[in-house]
Amino acid sequence: MLRPRDWSLARQLLALQIAVVTVVVAAGLGGAIAQAEHATEERAATRALAIARAVAATPDVRTALALPAPSTVLQPHAEGVRRATGTDFVVVMSTDGIRYSHPDATQIGKKFLGHIDDAVRGDAFTETYTGTLGPSVRAVVPVIADGAVRGLVAVGIVRSAIDRSLQGQLPTLALAGVLALLLAAGGTWLVNRRLRRQTHDLGPRELSRMYAYYDAVLHAVGEGLLLLDRDGRVQLVNDEARRLLALPTDVVGRRLDTLPMLGDGGPRVDEIHLTGDRVLVVNQRPAGDGSVVTLRDHTDLQALTGELDSVRGFAESLRSAAHEASNRLHTVVSLIGLGRVTEALEFATGELALSQRLADRVVESVEEPVLVALLLGKVAQASERGVELVLDPDAQVPPGVADPRDLVTIVGNLIDNAVDAAVAAPPPRRVEVGAWLDDEELVLQVADSGTGLDAAQVEQAFARGWSTKTDERLIGRGLGLALVGQTVHRRGGRIDVTGDGGAVFTVRLPVRARVPS
Fold this sequence. Notes:
Blueprint: H1 9-56, H2 59-65, H3 71-85, E1 89-93, H4 117-120, E2 125-131, E3 134-145, E4 148-158, H5 159-199, H6 204-220, E5 224-229, E6 234-237, H7 239-245, E7 268-274, E8 279-287, E9 290-297, H8 299-337, H9 341-365, H10 369-384, E10 388-391, H11 404-423, E11 430-437, E12 441-448, H12 455-460, H13 480-490, E13 494-498, E14 504-510
Parallel strand pairs: 10-11
Antiparallel strand pairs: 1-4, 2-3, 3-4, 5-6, 5-9, 7-8, 8-9, 11-12, 12-14, 13-14
Helix pairs in contact: 1-5, 2-3, 8-9, 8-10, 8-11, 10-11, 11-13
């Protein structure tokens, strides 16, 4: 059999509650018995006092006290009163305490056992005293005639009679105690039954161990974890979620202002949400009366993905250039085979000079290698889509003025958005890119020949999920400009959107402190 320490928490609480209830009921029953005993004794004293007063006020008693042999009259009278009232003794005595009556006739003429001083002075009183009949509750009353105390009357009820009266009440008190114990035990059992369901009948050590395990897992997992109730208020949050959402210490019990869309409790699978400076992948599933939300940080991954897309685009442009170079090479070889050497030379050097001028212009203007690669790749991509991507001749980006990853995110997404806008508009399709330094700020500007944005669209453009595209490929739409806005905000910059007949996005970033070479 399991030791009490190995019992389940519900069983231990049940045993403790039953013990407490038993002690309380026993104490209450003891108190009730004591109170009943005191009340019975008080009733006996009151009854004895009333009978003694009545006997003392009887004229026959007053008259008998003046006779030479009072006992001949008082003994039968007192015994008659005793039998009629059911008391144990009615004693009439002199002021010196000499008995004139007694249930035991042999005690007549002897001194009364008890206190009589107060009665001699004219005051009635009650007391508990042990006399010839044993312990008794008695009342002593003076007999007053002509203004003087002529004798005393004592009426008593022995304690054994009082105890018999009290014993008659004990079954009722015991029944009340048992009923109280049964009711309390029944209530305790019902509470215990509910507790067993809620604790799965686990013991304190199991619960403590589970709490330690769950708490360790909660704070050790690499994902952010939130438990929300049905009203969207936070009930539980781990350290990673606090870090990702920059939550205050008192967030428990409050709704999330960072991700208000989670309050509906609906299921979400790998949704991308942007906070002030992070890209988060959010999953939400209903659980019980609320929902469980997990958060994964994709900020760095999104930046690396942008760089990878740029490199991939550059590789695609190189493959396209290689394909075009192969075509041009075949053309040159064919011209030479036809004996048209001069035309072959002009064709080859003309194409080479055009490509070289474009590369030279980008390299001269932009000294950041990552941004150079991005622009060359975007030029090739735009060309394949029928859009002319032009770099402002006065563009200038010194190395180290900004984080290369931020430049890739901002310029790459703005060019992609501009190319899409230009493709959707009638020709000529053109995108212009400018960059320069202005008062310790790096200014990046991308303009397109699209239809532009009205005032309402400008306000929505940098919200996640907003897009002007109407195709059915919704995955990934509306994230580019949101990432731009997030990156600019994180770096303490600002964005202006203007344009008439085409959108012009102007980004201003504080110049990053450069380490002297």
